[in-house]
């Protein structure tokens, strides 16, 4: 072996040895698995400041949903009170099921379209409509008519995929860190568009329960303490505005529905910022009393609103 | 000619992929997405033998058969997406020296295997067992793409399925495809030359084609350059084997003397060879098929006795008829929005390998969805209207695929003093098939706990499986659907009342 060759060989070998040593040193750890510190998100408070000049609840009865929506918002101070130019607005109707509008399992498409239009008029940069559906989401958005209504009004549908859920701290008694749809972290304003429905476990599905659509994960565990879960969610997501759809009400077989025989016409929209009051008000369409719906009292205790809506400044009108 | 074939091939492969891509609820707007399967004469012939019908769209296959009679095996190089892919794979993996190419492209007796396979498959079909889909290239490719390739490329940027789909034993199907493509390394178009039963069928039909590759013996200098370029392994340099030639036209381009042409016979054209098959081997494969069939039928399977986990899609024919029509192409699995449709392994017996079953841990049957029946090329799953599926007027009953049962040892309100009834909430029937009783049950301290304990009303249950799919006891749900009560079966029944049709 020539000297030159020897030097070459020895340097390669020692290079390799040094590499192994350094690699081992760099990779050494007391932990069996190296983990990135996890980012836990936090949901923003989407509310606007309360106003003494406007009623707390606006109840509008009629059959022309676009006009009723406009009227309800005007009474609350106009869309400009809620949406600023350039806002990214997220609308959260209930699009849980592969059902048609007449079956009243999902929020009515007319209300969604009317809200998209109002936000657009207020100069919103983007209006997203989302929900975490229980049936195949593509079918739910298509058959509920919400996809078409949204597109026509100039909004965008955002279907959350598995990867769109990120962990966020909900800070609840029961619900601590859960997967949350990232669209709710990206939006500037959030508008709740629930529908009044019967539900066999909680009694009813209303505005507060609509926030099930924000989270992912094994939501089906929430039924084990449904009232606390509802309140936890309502405390975690504080929307800019809520407009309840009580035009068609599913009286039985909820929350899935399926038969038009279970649906009654109530021709009402209820708008406001106080979800507890809106929910309490909506009980009348299902012939329920606030005492039989535990999440209302729990919500009041948590400071989310007022069960006795009668004590609030309520403006009621009939149009059309 | 070669350029023309390439355009053609790209176009047909593109069309095949396009149909696969649009096979979902969003994009399915009246395209005949099963066109390739319907053009396939082997699918048609197999179904004809087992069910004595040429189902609707399968009549398209006559176009291919008739043109093959005149034009030869053009399908393999010009239309068949698997042939095109094999061609491409051979081109990519196999850069050979000309000497090797001469050797590789010569005809070999192993090419006869495909005729034996065809014989066995057709005989089995004649007796009533349809296993053509295992080796039919179009069914094989459709299945490989639906179950293997597309789920692998699905992702946020390429959203092919509503969710990441998972398939029961899907990797096996994927590996077979990879194996077929890699086999091109050892022999160009290995699959097409050696294995393909459709190629064999078309080869037989091509035997008398008046239009074929012809060699002018006067001009030919026996340089064998045509052989170097030949994809068919059909010996264009001597007496062409018509049944093997799939008209890639490479030989014509390779010939510097202009001695080859595709067309009618001329005075100086060389003679051609007929089908080369060993009689003895042919008889052997036939006898094997004859022996196999009664053995298949005497093995316990879903055909012999209802099997709980063999839950067939809505509109599936009764098990016997279903097996006689299903070609395992997985078109239904491609289109199913919830991923509930899965390729069976041995649940339905060996005969039912890769036929669709519902696995509710993966998905559930969407109440208003009827897509699987719409794309099924052979009507093993017959096309249903939504009204017929859900039992809306004028249909007296919904289609049932099975029945749900509570496992009271796992159900939270039944076994663990914990409120739940997610199943009741999910149940789509109206009125709901799941109902509950409010009870107060003492816990271990003797304190009464208010609970709602669920029950299934079997006459209302349609077996859709959403309850099982959404049950919070996720590893094995506390409510599970089995096939009993399925509309398609006369014997897989348990309830006397209300369980008609
Ligand atoms: S009908 Fe059911 S099984 Fe068939 S594709 Fe639709 S959801 Fe899947
Ligand atoms: S399978 Fe389950 S969800 Fe479907 S109908 Fe039967 S009980 Fe209802």
What does this entry look like structurally?
The complex is a heterodimer of chains A (320) and B (501). The mean pLDDT of chain A is 94. In chain A, the strands form 2 sheets. In chain A, strands 2, 3, 4, 5, 8, 9, 10, 11, 12 and 13 form a 10-stranded mixed sheet that branches. A 3-stranded mixed sheet of chain A has the order 1-6-7. In chain A, helix 2 crosses helix 3, helix 3 packs parallel to helix 5 and helix 7 packs across helix 9. Chain A contains 9 helices and 13 strands. Chain A is α/β, with parallel strands linked by helices and 320 residues long. Chain A starts with a helix and ends with a strand. Chain B has 501 residues and is mainly alpha-helical. Helices cover 40% and strands 8% of the residues of chain B. Chain B has 22 helices and 8 strands. Chain B has a two-stranded antiparallel sheet. In chain B, strands 3-4 form a two-stranded antiparallel sheet. In chain B, strand 6 and strand 7 form a beta hairpin. In chain B, helix 3 crosses helix 4, helix 8 runs parallel beside helix 15 and helix 9 crosses helix 10. Chain B is elongated. The termini of chain B are far apart. The mean pLDDT of chain B is 92. Classes of the chains: A alpha/beta (320), B mainly alpha (501). At the A-B interface, helix 4 of A face helix 21 of B. Bound molecules: iron/sulfur cluster (2 copies). The site of one iron/sulfur cluster has 14 residues of chain B, from helix 18. The site of one iron/sulfur cluster (SF4) has 15 residues of chain B, from helix 22.
């Amino acid at each position: 072996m020539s000297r030159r060759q020897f030097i070459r060989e020895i340097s390669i070998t020692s290079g390799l040895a040094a590499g192994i040593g350094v690699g081992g040193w760099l990779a050494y750890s007391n932990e069996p698995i190296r983990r990135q510190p996890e980012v836990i998100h936090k949901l923003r408070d989407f509310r606007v400041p309360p106003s003494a000049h406007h009623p707390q609840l606006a109840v509008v009865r009629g059959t022309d949903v676009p006009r009723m929506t406009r009227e309800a918002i005007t009474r609350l101070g106009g869309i400009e009170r809620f949406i600023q130019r350039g806002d990214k607005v997220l609308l959260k109707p209930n699009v849980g099921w592969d059902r048609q509008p007449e079956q009243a399992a999902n929020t009515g498409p007319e209300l969604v379209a009317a809200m998209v239009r109002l936000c657009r008029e207020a100069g919103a940069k983007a209006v997203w409509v989302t929900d975490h559906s229980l049936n195949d989401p593509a079918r739910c958005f298509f058959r509920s008519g919400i996809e078409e209504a949204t597109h026509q009004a100039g909004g965008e549908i955002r279907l959350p995929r598995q990867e769109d859920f990120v962990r966020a701290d909900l800070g609840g008694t029961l619900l601590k860190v859960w997967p949350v749809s990232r669209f709710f972290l990206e939006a500037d304003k959030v508008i709740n568009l629930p529908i009044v429905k019967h539900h066999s476990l909680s009694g009813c599905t209303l505005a507060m329960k609509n926030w099930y659509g924000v989270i992912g994960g094994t939501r089906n565990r929430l039924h084990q303490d449904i009232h606390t879960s509802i309140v936890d969610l309502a405390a975690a997501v504080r929307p800019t505005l809520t407009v309840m759809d009580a035009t068609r009400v599913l009286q039985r077989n909820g929350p899935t529905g399926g038969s038009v025989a279970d649906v009654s016409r109530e021709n009402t929209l209820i708008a406001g910022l106080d979800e507890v009051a809106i929910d309490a008000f909506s009980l009348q369409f299902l012939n329920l009393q606030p005492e039989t719906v535990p999440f209302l009292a729990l919500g009041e205790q948590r400071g989310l609103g007022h069960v006795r809506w009668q004590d609030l400044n309520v403006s009621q009108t009939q149009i059309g | 000619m070669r350029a023309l074939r390439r355009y053609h091939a790209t176009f047909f492969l593109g069309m095949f992929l396009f149909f696969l891509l649009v096979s979902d609820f969003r994009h399915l707007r009246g395209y005949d997405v099963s066109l390739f399967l319907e053009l396939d004469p082997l699918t048609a012939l197999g179904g004809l033998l087992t069910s004595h019908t040429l189902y609707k769209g399968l009549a398209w296959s006559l176009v291919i058969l008739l043109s093959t009679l005149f034009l030869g095996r053009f399908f393999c190089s010009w239309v068949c997406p698997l042939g095109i892919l094999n061609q491409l794979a051979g081109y990519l993996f196999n850069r050979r020296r000309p000497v090797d190419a001469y050797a590789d492209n010569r005809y070999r007796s192993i090419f006869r295997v495909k005729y034996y396979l065809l014989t066995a498959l057709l005989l089995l079909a004649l007796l009533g067992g349809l296993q053509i889909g295992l080796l039919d290239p179009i069914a094989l490719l459709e299945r490989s793409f639906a179950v293997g390739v597309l789920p692998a490329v699905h992702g946020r940027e390429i959203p092919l399925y509503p969710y990441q789909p998972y398939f029961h034993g899907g990797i096996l199907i994927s590996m077979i495809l990879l194996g077929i493509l890699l086999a091109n390394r050892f022999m160009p178009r290995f699959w097409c030359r050696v294995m393909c039963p459709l190629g064999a069928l078309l080869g037989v039909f091509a035997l008398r084609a008046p239009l074929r590759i012809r060699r002018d013996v006067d001009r030919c200098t026996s340089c064998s350059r045509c052989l170097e370029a030949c994809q068919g392994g059909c010996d264009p340099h001597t007496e062409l084997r018509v049944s093997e030639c799939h008209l890639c036209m490479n030989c014509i381009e390779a010939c510097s003397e202009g001695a080859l042409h595709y067309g009618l016979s001329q005075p100086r054209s060389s003679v051609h060879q007929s089908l080369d098959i060993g009689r003895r081997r042919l008889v052997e494969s036939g006898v094997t098929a004859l022996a196999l069939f009664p053995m298949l039928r005497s093995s316990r399977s879903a055909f012999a006795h209802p099997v709980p986990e063999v839950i067939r899609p809505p509109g599936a024919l009764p098990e016997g008829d279903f097996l006689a029509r299903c070609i395992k192409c997985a078109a239904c699995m491609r289109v199913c929005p919830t991923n509930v449709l899965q390729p069976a392994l041995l649940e339905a017996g060996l005969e039912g390998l890769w036929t669709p079953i519902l696995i509710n841990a993966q998905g559930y049957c969407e109440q208003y969805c009827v897509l699987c029946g719409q794309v099924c090329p052979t009507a093993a799953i017959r096309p249903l209207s939504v009204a017929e599926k859900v039992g809306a007027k004028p249909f007296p009953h919904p289609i049932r695929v099975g029945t749900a049962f509570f496992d009271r040892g796992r159900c939270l309100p039944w076994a663990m003093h914990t409120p739940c009834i997610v199943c009741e909430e999910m149940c789509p029937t109206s009125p709901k098939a799941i109902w509950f009783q409010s009870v107060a049950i003492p816990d271990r301290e003797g304190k009464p706990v208010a609970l709602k304990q669920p029950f299934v009303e079997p006459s209302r249950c349609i077996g859709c499986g959403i309850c099982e799919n959404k049950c919070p006891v996720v590893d094995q749900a506390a409510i599970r659907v089995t096939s009993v009560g399925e509309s398609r079966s006369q014997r897989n029944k348990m309830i006397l009342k209300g369980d008609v049709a």
